[in-house]
Design goal:
This protein has 186 residues and is an alpha+beta fold. Helix content is 31%, strand content 35%. The chain has a domain of 130 residues: Gcn5-related N-acetyltransferase (GNAT) (Aminopeptidase). Strand 7 and strand 8 form a beta hairpin. The radius of gyration is 16 Å and the shape is globular.
């Protein structure tokens, strides 16, 4: 069994690894329709084990360079089935010392608190292990479940970015939500 990089009460966080390509492809195929309104358009190969092997290899390179850390989420009692993903992306140091968070939970588990648990645990991990000052989430205003999950994990709205990201082929507005590492100032 793979070792978790860390755990939250109900989730195990596995580091991105090309060896997990089959499970990652199965996750994306299971959730393709549910995620479509909230995701960029992906090429067909993205949903294949080969496409995921390439993506996970890139994720591993990014982690080794300290630019991004992406984790595959499992329930510890079912460690072979990916039920989500969460990542700290585009890590910038210096005076900014921040990043963007991304997350997805299997649609069969929506509404059960897994999203907020993953967001909170990963944000805390970033504060502890990467000494981040802030973690930013950008969420479409109509994605109420994602907004609620981020708010429950301590994120606050800072403003609206017009036509911010191209989602499902359309430039969409996004609410900018942030959680600051308030403990670093103590």
């Amino acid at each position: 069994m793979r070792r978790f990089v860390f755990r939250s009460p109900r989730l195990g966080f596995l580091a991105a690894d090309p060896a997990l390509a089959d499970a990652a492809a199965a996750f994306y195929c299971r959730n393709r329709e549910a995620f479509a309104p909230f995701d960029p358009v992906q090429p067909e190969e993205f949903f294949t084990p080969e496409g995921q092997e390439e993506r996970l290899g890139w994720d591993l390179e990014q982690a080794e360079a300290g630019r991004s850390f992406r984790f595959l989420l499992v329930q510890p009692r079912h460690p072979g089935k990916i039920i989500g993903l969460a990542g700290l992306n585009e890590i910038i140091g210096g005076a900014f010392h921040s990043c963007f968070i991304s997350y997805k939970i299997d649609h069969t588990l929506w509404g059960r608190g897994y999203g907020s648990e993953a967001i909170d645990a990963l944000t805390q991990w970033g504060f502890r292990n990467l000494d981040l000052h802030r973690v930013e989430a950008n969420i479409m205003p109509r994605n109420l479940a994602s907004r609620k999950a981020a708010a429950k994990a301590g994120f606050e709205e800072e403003g609206l970015a017009r036509r911010y990201l191209k989602i499902n082929g359309i430039w969409e507005d996004h609410l900018h939500m942030v959680r600051r590492n308030d403990e670093e100032d103590l």
